[in-house]
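Form 7-S
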Amino acid sequence: MSQTQDRAPIQTWVAVPGLTVVSDPTSPVAEAYRTLRSSIKFADVKPPVHSIAIADSGTGGQHAAVAANLAAALALGGDTVALVDAVLRRPELHQYLGLPNETGLSEWLARGDVGQPLPLVDTQVSGLRFLPAGHAPSETVGISPVDLLGGDACAALLTGLRDEVSYVVVDTSPLPEYGDALALAPRVDAVILLVRSGHTKRAEAQRAKEALDRVGARVLGAVLTDTGRGIFR
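Output:
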């Protein structure tokens, strides 16, 4: 994928079972996430990256694991982090953290009151707080996840979180199946595009990249997931 001068190429290889940075911190997989952490923290781009969306290029299904492990790796490195589950249709992040998904982003956005408290919860990792997806309103009542994520309330939420913590990591629904990631991508500092080894075709990844470019997202680079062999092999 081509890079402009304000984009730093991130090309990291990771496998994705579980919250590996916590359960197996000396493993090659955990080291891969720490490498990804360093690539983001020290990326030579302006403005610097403090909010990141994880965008899956369609055939991955690894976005939740990458978002959870990246957020945990940042927190374990001493940063304060907010992990946001913006996969409103089929949320998974709470499972990686061992937390319930009773109320969260969906309910907060649907109320339309940016002054209301955020339903952030603490996690097992010091410095890492989590905003669950909650339960998305049915599209049959006229509210779609894309409308919620593309609204002014979501923009205000992300801006507010970015001011409160060192990093915001946002998990998004896969492209091109849903447009949710495209609604969120311009509202964060950068996007990391996931490509699944042995599954994602080059043309699919390129289409996802082009779609992100069209909405003005800054694609920081790509992460190759599900190598089955750990890191850099």
